[in-house]
Design a protein that fits this description.
The N and C termini lie close together (about 10 Å). It contains 16 helices and no strands. The longest helix has about 30 residues. By secondary structure, the protein is an all-alpha fold.
Length: about 425
Amino acid sequence: MVTPASAGGDSLNDAARKIQRVYLTLTLGNTVAASFIWGINTLFLLDAGLSNLEAFAANAFFTAGMVLFEVPTGVIADGWGRRASFLLGTITLAASTYLYYVLWQISAPFWMWAVVSVLLGLGFTFFSGAVEAWLVDALRFSGYEGGLETVLGRGQMVQGVAMLLGSVAGGVIAQATNLGVPFLIRVFVLVAMFAVAFGLMHDVGFSPERSTHPLRATRAVLSASIENGLKNPPVRYVMLAAPFSAGVGIYVFYALQPFLLDLYGDPRAYSIAGLAAAIVAGSQILGGWLAPHARRLFHKRTSVLILGGLAGFVILLVLGFTRVFWVALVLLAFWAVVGSAATPVRQAYVNDMIPSKQRATVLSFDSLMGSSGGVVVQPLLGRGADLYGYPASLAMAGIIELISVPFLLASRRQGASADRANTEAVQSP
């Protein structure tokens, strides 16, 4: 007999349901805040007087900030607590977002954008490993034994809803007012999320080990994280795939704004840029729902990841040769669904291979690998857009994403038990 957990069904007990509600609340609020600018960010930078190269270089400095601070903030999450890390993230991101608004008002030189972009990256690193680590440890502590894809998929669905609301609202508000107002709204929502997290989020199933010797503690946690991350072959190969897949994902999302506006024929139709982000958001909702179902179709998690990488390559290549606006929107939706369905599967695969004590740091290191790809890929493809146009740069992005597939195949060959987790039929006694 197949149990609900093995079939991918909802096996949450009351304690786990409470944890899930808090997780979904935090995901909803944070994504709404962030997504107010996602649909217009590239247009905002270009409106401030930056070139395509400078705009994507500013984004690259953002990802460079994530690379610099991922591991230190992961250590903070493991040493001070995941709640403390989340609260620090809301304040840091609110302050740096307001500085972005100020730079736009004064048409600041590029070096100022670079500095503040790094601070924005710092703000996001406080969230990247902490929230997921908090969720997984709290669920396990509550007695939940089902597949992580189910809860992580629901989180992605909520993230998609929030992104849909925020990105559409950001585009419409920008068109009705100006490109700076959505940034101010983001600041307000982040301050509100600080209050929400302060009241609802508490470390459960995890006790931070604070040390009187911070540098020694940092070295110890980092060493253990490397041991359970890069020195663990199946985890290492997934991490090595991240610079290519994540770097491309960051570029494509932001490049689609001016690309679709060019196809649409109206450079000031900011709501169209918001529509692009909204389609990605809607695809995230569908992808989050599909994740546990897609997982049941394959014997191994890596099968989902490999097929996702191949499909992404094909879609981006075709998108690069598309000159029809509505066809581009359909291809964009397919690309986003594929990536969104694979993401919870990847998260579950990695989480099932790392220990609780170093979970936030290892996850942060994984995020660092993806961000490092963005540092190189964004300015490279941004320069390609300057020289050859956005369509050619999207086709180039597809080729870069294809490079991730051999690493995923290498992870598959390691035969990790996490690759088959929660798919075996469980016999009733």
